[in-house]
Amino acid sequence: MSKRAEDLLESIRTMEKELKEEIKRIKIETYEIRDRSIKFKDEVRAHHKSQLVRVFTYLRHARLRNIATAPMIWLCIFPALFMDLVVTLYQLVCFPVYGIPKVRRGDYIVMDRGYLAYLNIIEKANCLFCAYFNGLVGYVAEVGGRTEQYWCPIKHASRVKSQHSRYDRFTEFGDSNQFRANFKTIRTDFSDLAEPDQPGSVQPKSD
Fold it and tell me: What is the spatial distance between Cα 64 and Cα 3, in angstroms, rounded to a whole number?
């Protein structure tokens, strides 16, 4: 990676850190997470309840095409559940063998929108589905990214629109010297992920 690319990457990390701090500040002003549940301030919750759209009203104003296509959307839950099971079993079996820290599923599949009092039961169900499905995609992508780092840590020649979190660590496309010299180091370098005091984590090991 060039010095310019490294500087840009560091700038992005700094901005991400600042963004997280700003989001944390907003959380403190409106709600807090306590005992794995979310507590809104009384005035905020009252305002949310005032904006609740009742189910009958919601359905009366819903577009017919949205209602007609809803079953097709919900059919996707079955392959999603199967993929969830397979990928979870895969990393439970294979990651300890490879010395790759396991991906914490709960970091990606987060279902907390049920605490929002301005959503009716249908809206909450829709949010539940979206949170699970998109969280699952992120979870699977991270498992795949760590697997790719172990087996084939090489960047693509073409620009990849969506990159997983491990991609920046890969060697440049076509740089055979870099790949051969650094392959064993890169494939086992999960030092930014491994936390000794984290339940279920494993320490990277070399071949």
Answer: 55
